[in-house]
Amino acid sequence: LEKPLAQAPLACNTHEEYFPGWSEVLCTQEMETQSAEVILPAQQAVVLYVLPILTVLVTCASPAMALAFLVRASHVGQELQNAVQRRFSLLSLFIVGLSPFFLLSNYVASNLYLYGIYGAMLATANLLADRLAKCRIWPGLAIWHALNLLTLIGGNLGPILPYTISTNGIVGECLRVSARYGDMCPRGDAAITWCDNVWVSVQLLVAFAYVLLHIIAFFLVITRVVHHYGGGSDGDFDSDSFRHATGHSSVPNSGALPSAGPF
Fold it and tell me: The pTM is what?
């Protein structure tokens, strides 16, 4: 079965009517894609179909698997119900739920799936942090959120990021495959797996919501950090400075000592 495929002639549809002047470039890219699909049919099937489906299944089950490390397996369902009642955990579950839209992509021609994997990992860490409710967890989680948010937005931030996926960000990565063919996915014999105009449009809309949810999660984590490690409020400091500037004593006339205030 593999021998006829390997010897089959490679057809090249240049789409000259849509992209005049790009015949040679498009033909080269299309021939390379067809050659890879012909030479490695079994491996291509695993990479393009089996792995995305398995990744989606593991990602959807990741919240339950993570909570299973903290409680008995019989209590995981109750823990998930409790997580829905907490704002931060519910937001994290939404992020996990949107990640499969990026996992169902072409793992050979695009790195879009990495955004889904990293986002799901961070969302699962959010669930654990919210469940454990330990103060010392939040500063490290805030740093992770900041790095992940910069990666989602994109830009030339290589010097300050320990890891990067693409300078285009998640929105630009959604268009990476179709942009090679003039922002429109090829059809027919030249079709690219997971590159469909409707599906790419859905991924773009979900990508916008994905970034928005991560921004909200980032500020929620920052709020937790400030709550635990922020010290005294600015109101106390401004009031103290005003009393010193006007020459008034901070000790009341009754002789009672002022409150020390929050630390």
Answer: 0.73
- Cα dist. 235→73, 87, 239 in Å? 48, 28, 6
In the chain, the largest separation of any two C-alpha atoms, in whole Å, equals 100
What gap in Å lies between CA 41 and CA 106, rounded to an integer? 15
Q: How far apart, in Å, are the Cα atoms of 261 and each of 213, 224, 227, 244, 256? A: 35, 19, 14, 17, 15
| Contacts for 153 with CB less than 8 Å, ≥ 6 apart | 169, 211
CA proximity to 173, closest of 122, 92, 106: 106
The model's pLDDT over 207-231, given as tens digits with 9 standing for 90+, comes to 999 999 999 999 999 999 999 988 7
pLDDT top residue among 109 and 18? 109
DSSP 258: P
Distances (CA, A) of 36 to 15, 30, 31, 75, 188: 20, 10, 9, 47, 17
Query: How far apart are the two ends of the chain, measured CA to CA in Å?
Result: 74
Q: Which helix (H) or strand (E) holds 137?
A: helix 137-153
Instruction: Reduce the DSSP state of residue 110 to 3 states and report it.
Output: coil
CB atoms within 10 A of CB 87: 11
Query: Using an 8 Å Cβ cutoff, are 101 and 170 in contact?
Result: no
* Side-chain-side CA neighbours of residue 10 (13 Å): 17
Spatial contact of 12 and 22, defined as CB atoms under 8 Å apart:
no
